[in-house]
Specification:
The complex is a heterodimer of chains A (249) and B (158). Chain A is α+β, with helices and mostly antiparallel strands and 249 residues long. Helices cover 36% and strands 14% of the residues of chain A. In chain A, α2 packs parallel to α6 and α6 crosses α9. Chain B has a domain of 38 residues. Chain B is built from four helices and four strands, in the order ββαααββα. In chain B, a hairpin with a 2-residue loop joins β3 and β4. Chain B is flat and about 95 Å long. The N terminus of chain B is likely disordered. Classes of the chains: A alpha+beta (249), B mainly alpha (158). At the A-B interface, β6, α2, α3, α5 and α9 of A face α1 and α3 of B.
Chain lengths: 249, 158
């Protein structure tokens, strides 16, 4: 195995540059090193000005998403040895404005996330505060609750790049997660936001969001299931308008 | 999303009792974000995106095939002469080439549709989600059986 590998890292300083450019660094190639280790090596030993987000180093926090050779990847879960002999091209996640170097601006996503009400909504007057759930009921939504908001799915989704108002894969999958939760009664409220051209109908099922998801959330599947539910809901409302209130609850 | 151009509004800092100097207007720091542009040819960058565009294009082939079938029905209603004229038009080499391409797109359209079904439908039996092949499989079988029956009918009449 070679002793070192080249990293071509995208740099952008808002004070100095009009557009990003690449800077090449030579880092040791170690079997146990992931992309994040290499970036931290650069930061510590070669160039302290390199800016990137990271935190937990174990695929939990979702901070270290970068484009690695044009694929959205978690820096902490992608081994350097996969890319020998190199160079490894590291860029900020696609479809987001760039703040500096590999740091992207995510407030747009946070606004969208808030819009889909990703929390339990109750209106059944349960005062005991306890909601029992069977393992089967948990299984209904468990997969979608694994999302760590790393935003790799937004970088993989061309619709998110082309249509900035599209709510996007992670937010839609999280909405689906709460709709599928037996303790939640907010699906009608969410339907108003999501059954919209900017919501589920904005998705054209490219399917790349599911492929790049490091937590196997399957946002594309969630959105298609939501489309089916919305279509059935629409037909019910058309056929039985008088039953609409009860159906939505 | 707030954009760099108009997101920040100047905010006057309220002067406390210790402030004696005039307080300048404070503008919230807002760095110049770089906004990458999506190229018109973004879909050429990855085979998965090319496949997606081809699948979207396949709807044109579906529309074309529907139009051909409607014209065929119209020719059938108008009588044997009209139908012969229609057949003659269909036998032109460029028309055959076009229909072969349309047929390939129809196959792509059908296969991607059947593969989508298990994504959109969650069927649980005994608490376990049915594997995708058990949802798309019967559709493929039905597709093949119906196509075979149609072929047999056409060949037996021909």
């Amino acid at each position: 195995m070679a002793q070192s590998i080249q990293l071509r890292v995208s740099r952008y300083s808002p004070e100095r540059d009009t557009q990003p450019y690449f800077q090449t660094y030579e880092v040791p190639l170690k079997e146990e090193w992931v992309i994040l280790d290499a970036l931290n090596y650069i930061k510590d030993k070669i160039d302290g000005t390199l800016t990137f987000r990271w935190s937990c180093r174990m695929g939990i926090c979702g901070s270290c998403g970068y484009m690695v050779n044009n694929e959205p990847k978690l820096g902490c879960a992608t081994f350097l040895t996969q890319y020998t002999p190199g160079p490894v091209i590291i860029e900020p996640l696609k479809n987001f404005p760039i703040v500096r170097d590999l740091v992207i601006e995510i407030s747009d996503f946070l606004e969208k996330l808030k819009k889909v009400k990703p929390w339990l909504i109750h209106d059944d007057g349960n005062e005991s505060g306890e909601y029992l759930q069977t393992p089967d009921q948990l299984e209904e939504f468990r997969q979608y609750s694994m999302c760590i908001n790393c935003l790799l799915c937004y970088a993989a989704c061309p619709i998110s790049g082309l249509d900035p108002v599209f709510v996007g894969p992670a937010a839609l999958a999280l909405a689906h997660r709460y709709n599928k939760d037996s303790r939640d009664q907010g699906s009608a409220e969410r339907m108003a936001v999501l059954s919209h051209p900017e919501g589920i109908w904005g998705c054209t099922f490219v399917g790349e969001c599911t492929k790049v998801c490091p937590k196997h959330v399957d946002p594309a599947g969630a959105i298609q299931q939501y489309k089916l539910a919305a279509a059935i809901d629409g037909i019910k409302q058309f056929l039985m308008p008088w039953g609409q209130r009860q159906e939505n609850r | 999303m707030s954009s760099p151009g108009h997101a920040s509004t100047p905010t006057q800092i309220s002067s406390g009792p210790l402030d004696s100097a005039p307080v300048p207007d404070y503008t919230e720091f807002h760095p110049r974000w770089y906004r990458p542009q999506v190229s018109t040819y973004w879909w050429l960058g990855k085979w998965a995106y090319v496949k997606f565009i081809l699948r979207e294009l396949s709807s044109v082939a579906v529309a074309w095939t529907v139009a051909i079938i409607l014209l065929q029905v119209r020719a059938l209603i108008r009588g044997p002469e009209a139908y012969l004229r229609f057949e003659h038009r269909l036998s032109a080499p460029w028309m055959i080439a076009l229909n072969v391409i349309a047929f390939a797109f129809l196959l792509l359209h059908s296969i991607t549709w059947f593969n989508l079904a298990p994504k959109a439908m969650v069927v649980r039996v005994g608490g376990k989600r049915l594997p995708a092949v058990l949802i798309s499989g019967p559709q493929y079988v039905a597709w093949i059986v119906i196509s075979a029956i149609v072929f047999v009918i056409i060949l037996s009449r021909g």
